[in-house]
Amino acid sequence: MAKKKLQRFGEINTFPNVVQPGTEGWHFFPPSDYRLKGRWNSEHFGRQAPLVLELGCGKGEYTIHLAEKHPDKNFIGIDLKGNRIWRGAKTALEKKLNNAAFLRTQIEQIHYLFAPGEVSEIWITFPDPQPQNDRAKKRLTSPAFIERYRSILQKGGSVHLKTDHEPLYRYTLDVINDMGLILLDSTDDLYGSRPATQTTREEAAAVQTFYESQFLKEGKKICYLKFKI
Could you give the CA distance from residue 80 to residue 2 in angstroms, rounded to a whole number? Predict the structure, then answer.
């Protein structure tokens, strides 16, 4: 297994659709802006289009699906685990999806990687719920992370959350309310509820990640919400 991981790490170093700031001599501390900040569309994708991020993309199932469904948009899946990114990036190359890329980095650093207003939409798919109270700040829908998203999203940009962890779903609803954000859609049972619109729940239910399919087999309900910053 370790040998396979090393092989994959070597492969992603050659993938043109994978960006790894850490391998380019760019350091997180002290913070400095990354060379592609504000230039992802022009310098990486080579075209102007709405830019959509998937945070904690894992094997990139959502990034791949959305890129296939929306060829008029550019997508970046973000994860720290190179072994996971390898699968999504390889699939994108095999399918010749030039509008899909992968960024290997810590999500905490995205405000150094993207410029204000550069991102149009964010998907958060099955993040670590960080259930302990003393780890609330690490939840990807905590106020601290919301402020990071606000700093890179265009005005009126939206955020999607899909999770099997109902406490995280409820926590996020409270954060949305406390921060005065605009809730666009929510359900604590995605597959047991009627779609609100073609572009919200139906899109959220259109693809299942590997872990999501396991959760559903276990009888867990999938929660989904969308809000505007």
Answer: 17
